[in-house]
């Protein structure tokens, strides 16, 4: 969501009493953890500031971005979980491995959301270098973790009001 010279992590969603009972699972990749943990902290801060109780936020770590879909599926299949946030960071290397991981991760996370009818946010950075990742994990271009947390809150409200 962040674009050149623009920080889109400034949230517009209001705190709500509807979020007090919301249970959110955050699946975070340990690979590039200086980036992913900064996004995780941003997500937790946003959720609690909008009314989600800290005890209702589960954090689960997985080895890398490729494992995010299974982590999301394990949590989405739990009826006690209302929404899932996936956080990862894949940085372009010299081989096509980047493409395979990014595609598998995106398709897998999408599949979980649709299969379980559960809000699942895609908070996975796919950058050319470490600097770009830092700029999007709390730097001048915002924090993708904050954006992912806002996404699940909005989708939770949509689901709640549509059912």
Note down, in words, how this protein is organized.
- 42% of the residues are buried.
- The mean pLDDT is 91.
- This protein has 163 residues and is of the alpha/beta class.
- The strands form 2 sheets. The protein has a 4-stranded parallel beta sheet, sandwiched between helices. The protein has a two-stranded antiparallel sheet with strand order 5-6.
- Helix 1 crosses helix 5 (144-162).
- It is built from 5 helices and 6 strands.
Ordered list of secondary-structure elements with their pairings:
Blueprint (H helix, E strand, L loop, with lengths): L23 E6 L3 H17 L7 E6 L5 H9 L6 E9 L5 H20 L3 E8 L2 H6 L1 E3 L2 E2 H19 L1
Parallel strand pairs: 1-2, 1-3, 3-4
Antiparallel strand pairs: 5-6
Helix pairs in contact: 1-5, 2-3
**Broad structural category:** alpha/beta
CA-to-CA gap between the ends? 28 Å
Oligomer: single chain
Largest sheet: 4 strands, parallel
Spatially, the strands of the biggest sheet line up as 2-1-3-4
Can you give the helix content as a percent range?
40-55%
Question: What share of residues are in beta strands?
Answer: 15-25%
Task: Give the mean pLDDT.
Answer: 91
Number of helices: 5
Order of helices and strands: EHEHEHEHEEH
Q: Give the tally of β-strands.
A: 6
Low-confidence stretches: none
CA-based shape: globular
Question: What is the radius of gyration computed over CA atoms, rounded to a whole number of angstroms?
Answer: 15 Å
List the main descriptive attributes of the protein structure presented here.
alpha/beta, four-stranded parallel sheet, 44% helix
């Amino acid at each position: 969501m962040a674009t050149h010279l623009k920080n889109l992590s400034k949230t517009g969603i209001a705190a709500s009493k509807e979020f007090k009972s919301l249970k959110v699972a955050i699946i975070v990749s340990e690979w590039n953890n200086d980036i992913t943990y900064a996004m995780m902290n941003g997500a937790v801060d946003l959720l609690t500031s909008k009314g989600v109780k800290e005890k209702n936020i589960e954090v689960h770590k997985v080895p890398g971005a490729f494992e995010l879909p299974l982590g999301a599926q394990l949590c989405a299949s739990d009826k006690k979980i209302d929404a899932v946030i996936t956080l990862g960071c894949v940085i372009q290397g010299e081989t096509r491995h980047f493409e395979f991981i990014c595609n598998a991760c995106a398709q897998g996370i999408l599949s979980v959301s649709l299969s379980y009818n559960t809000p699942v946010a895609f908070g996975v950075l796919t950058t050319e270098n470490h600097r770009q990742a830092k700029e999007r994990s709390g730097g001048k271009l915002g924090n993708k973790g904050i954006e992912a947390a806002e996404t699940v809150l909005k989708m939770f409200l949509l689901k709640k009001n549509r059912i």
